């Protein structure tokens, strides 16, 4: 998988790729991350990348000609993604879909935004939440992390991401490790019982319970058995 990140601030992105799992994945050749400075595609002595908006208004707008030159120079890509509050909400299913691609170009906006004509040169617009940031760099990093960890070999135990929150349509079940007791708080007995069937049942019910308590909206689309639906109805009773 190759990522090309287009940004006015490459140094905001670069450190994130030089630590932890992403660094190892790059070193192993499992993923490639190319960070390009959009300003390099601006013409003129001052390398101007933005201008005042037509019609007036506050802030500056990134120029369509500069951004499009950067997109086109990134080469053929499966997806050209603009990170913007106006995009579709990013979620795990979308991350799984994008992780199947070979080359993603992630375009980070800044200032008041990017000239709307850029929309004709991207394949998707993605938002990471209903709020406004100073630019698209954090959004690009979110997409990078969420998809890269799904690339085979990036995470040692691939089964772990199959059980992630949202991958099953539910929130993840709670996890525990040593010590078995801490300040009166004990690990649930079932987890140290060695009974794998009971452990699996407990984890599934915990995932259902957490989802019911914290994100009940997810249950509307989750694949549930009749028994699970009945169990959830019982838990929801006053």
UniProtKB/TrEMBL annotation:
Signal peptide: none annotated. One of its GO terms (molecular function) is tRNA (guanine(37)-N1)-methyltransferase activity. Residues 1-221 form the tRNA methyltransferase TRMD/TRM10-type domain. InterPro entries: Alpha/beta_knot_MTases, tRNA_m1G_MeTrfase_C_sf, tRNA_m1G_MeTrfase_TrmD, tRNA_m1G_MTases_N, tRNA_MeTrfase_TRMD/TRM10. S-adenosyl-L-methionine binds at residues 109, 128-133. It is found in: Cytoplasm. Its EC number is 2.1.1.228. SUPFAM superfamilies: alpha/beta knot. One of its GO terms (cellular component) is cytosol. It comes from the Bacteria. It catalyses: guanosine(37) in tRNA + S-adenosyl-L-methionine = N(1)-methylguanosine(37) in tRNA + S-adenosyl-L-homocysteine + H(+). Keywords: Cytoplasm, Methyltransferase, S-adenosyl-L-methionine, Transferase, tRNA processing. One of its GO terms (biological process) is tRNA N1-guanine methylation. Homodimer. Specifically methylates guanosine-37 in various tRNAs. Belongs to the RNA methyltransferase TrmD family. This is tRNA (guanine-N(1)-)-methyltransferase.
């Amino acid at each position: 998988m190759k990522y090309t990140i287009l940004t006015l601030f490459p140094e905001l992105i670069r450190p994130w790729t030089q630590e932890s799992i992403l660094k190892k994945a790059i070193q192993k050749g499992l993923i490639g991350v190319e960070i390009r400075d959009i300003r390099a595609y601006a013409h003129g002595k001052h390398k101007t990348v933005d201008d005042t908006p037509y019609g007036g208004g506050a802030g500056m707008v990134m120029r369509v000609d500069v951004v499009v030159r950067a997109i086109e120079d990134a080469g053929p890509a499966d997806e050209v993604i603009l990170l913007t509050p106006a995009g579709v909400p990013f979620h795990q299913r979308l991350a799984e879909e994008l992780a199947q691609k070979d080359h993603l170009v992630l375009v980070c906006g800044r200032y008041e935004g990017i000239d709307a004509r850029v929309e004709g040169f991207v394949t998707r617009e993605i938002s990471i939440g209903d709020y406004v940031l100073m630019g698209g760099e954090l959004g690009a990093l979110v997409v990078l992390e969420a998809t890269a960890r799904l690339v085979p070999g990036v995470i040692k135990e691939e089964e772990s991401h199959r059980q992630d929150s949202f991958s099953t349509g539910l929130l993840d079940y709670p996890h525990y490790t040593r010590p078995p007791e801490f300040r009166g708080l004990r690990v649930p007995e079932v987890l140290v019982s060695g009974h794998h069937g009971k452990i699996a049942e407990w984890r599934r019910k915990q995932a259902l319970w957490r989802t019911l308590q914290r994100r009940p909206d997810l249950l509307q689309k989750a694949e549930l058995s009749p028994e699970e639906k009945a169990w959830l109805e019982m838990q929801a009773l006053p």
